[in-house]
Recover the amino acids of this structure.
């Protein structure tokens, strides 16, 4: 069927030497046991040019804030720092602060506008206990689609702060108005129309995507698309990306065994929404769907019927998505699907990690050395206390004995002082080095996967819920479709110490 198609590049490809294109493994995943691979579309198969999309979204949102929400015209002149927001932050509607939370849900650092909130204020607001991320008070910045929302909020807060004026509304309203304005821009197709009109401006081309999907198909995997986007938008963007890329695959539809739009994730994983077959224009056809035919497009649907119609269950299905909650956490919790998370930002993150390998090594060595010095200080402290007790207990000490004990204590105390200075110098060097490394990732928030010494909340979610993760779907091209992705063994400290 596929005569004339050159497969040599596909079949001979091997794991990439470029670390930004590797697939990283949290839990063992044997692709030989995977019968079906499902894909989300936005930010998964389709990767957007973040800066261009942020600019478009913010421009359209500001227009809506002025026209639909009666915000003053001056917000059109708000200066936006597009590097300000990263994924994984949370927005506090009550204060307008944007916070980075660690794996224990403790707020590590926060900003009001573009100014860092003092440690004193942060501790008085959030303390050092876990905060409730399910509370209505907080909004999570879970996807790259949500970056403009928080970027604009910080910009508006900063604008009024610099002018020394109060915001036109309170921070809770500001948050909700921005969200409503963005939703309006999504729902009335303002944003999508602009993307469809000039897809090359907003969508990254990926020459490896067609061959990657084809390679998985050749290996016998069923491929399905499960997106929340509407029919017309899916058709337009996927056509731009895949139509005519490979011979015998004229249409993007030819790559998939099942195509589901308007998937309504996360509801797809929890509720019995029906499948509705659509005609070629996206209009619903009045019929009961009992099987999912290739090259047809269906709207809605639910996981239970999808698994039944594919005759597959959780562990045989790999779902590839970018939304940590809707795509990964829910599919893992509800159905035990195997999960691959696409993290577009990993290209930068891995590059910076490689560039700073020597710095990370130095920080690690400083940590190890500091722990050893702590042990030395503790030993000398124990010694001086023991000698104090000896002196109190034995009243009849001779003068030479007292002298020996006193001089031993003095030596121990002197050593404690010297070790403390050494320890402080090490901790200072480690802290300064870590701050320098952090700034190179993002000058406000540092590394996306970490908060100080801990994993960030985002990093912890990636570790807990994504079996594998990578920067883009087409990185699968460099691996066998039956690859056994193997995780590193994990160790507790008492085990690692003795390796
Ligand atoms: Mg997505």
């Amino acid at each position: 069927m596929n005569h004339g198609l050159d497969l040599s590049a596909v079949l001979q490809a091997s794991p990439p030497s470029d670390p930004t294109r590797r697939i990283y493994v949290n839990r063992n995943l044997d692709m030989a046991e995977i019968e079906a691979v499902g894909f989300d579309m936005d930010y998964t198969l389709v990767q957007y040019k973040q800066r261009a999309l942020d600019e478009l979204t913010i421009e359209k949102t500001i227009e809506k804030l002025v026209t639909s929400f009666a915000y003053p015209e001056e917000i059109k002149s708000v200066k936006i720092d597009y590097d300000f927001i990263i994924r994984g932050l949370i927005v506090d509607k009550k204060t307008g602060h944007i916070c980075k939370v660690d794996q224990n849900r403790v707020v590590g650092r926060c900003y009001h506008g573009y100014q860092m909130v003092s440690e004193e204020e942060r501790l008085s607001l959030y303390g050092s206990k876990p905060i409730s991320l399910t509370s209505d008070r907080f909004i999570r910045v879970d996807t790259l689609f949500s970056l403009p929302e928080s970027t604009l909020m910080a910009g508006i807060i900063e604008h009024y702060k610099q002018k020394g004026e109060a915001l036109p509304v309170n921070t809770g309203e500001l948050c909700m108005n921005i969200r409503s304005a963005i939703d309006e821009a999504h729902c009335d197709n303002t944003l999508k129309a602009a993307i469809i009109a000039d897809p090359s401006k907003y969508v990254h081309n990926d020459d490896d995507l067609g061959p990657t999907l084809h390679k998985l198909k050749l290996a016998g995997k069923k491929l399905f698309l499960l997106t929340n986007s509407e029919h017309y938008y899916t058709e337009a963007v996927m056509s731009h990306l895949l139509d005519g890329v490979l011979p015998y695959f004229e249409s993007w539809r030819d790559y998939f065994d099942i195509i589901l739009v308007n998937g309504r994730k996360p509801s797809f994983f929890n509720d019995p929404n029906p499948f509705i077959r659509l005609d070629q224009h996206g209009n619903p056809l009045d019929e009961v769907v009992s099987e999912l035919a290739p090259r047809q497009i269906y709207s809605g649907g639910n996981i239970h019927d999808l698994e039944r119609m594919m005759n597959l269950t959780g562990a045989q299905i790999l779902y590839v998505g970018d939304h940590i909650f809707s795509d990964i956490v829910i599919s893992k919790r509800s159905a035990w699907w195997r999960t691959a998370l696409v993290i577009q930002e990993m290209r930068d993150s891995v590059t910076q990690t490689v560039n700073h390998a020597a710095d990370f090594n130095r920080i690690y060595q400083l940590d190890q050395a500091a722990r050893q010095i702590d042990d030395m200080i503790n030993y000398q402290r124990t010694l001086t206390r023991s000698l104090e007790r000896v002196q109190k207990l034995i009243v009849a000490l001779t003068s030479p004995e007292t002298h020996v004990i006193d001089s031993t204590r003095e030596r121990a105390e002197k050593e404690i002082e010297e070790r403390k200075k050494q320890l402080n110098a090490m901790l200072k060097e480690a802290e300064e080095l870590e701050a320098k490394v952090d700034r190179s990732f993002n000058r406000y928030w540092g590394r996306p996967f970490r908060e100080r010494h801990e994993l960030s909340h985002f990093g912890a979610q990636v570790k807990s819920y994504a079996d594998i993760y990578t920067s883009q779907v087409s990185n699968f091209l460099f691996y066998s479709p039956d690859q056994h992705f193997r995780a590193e063994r994990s160790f507790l400290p008492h085990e690692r110490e003795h390796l």
About this structure: The mean pLDDT is 92.
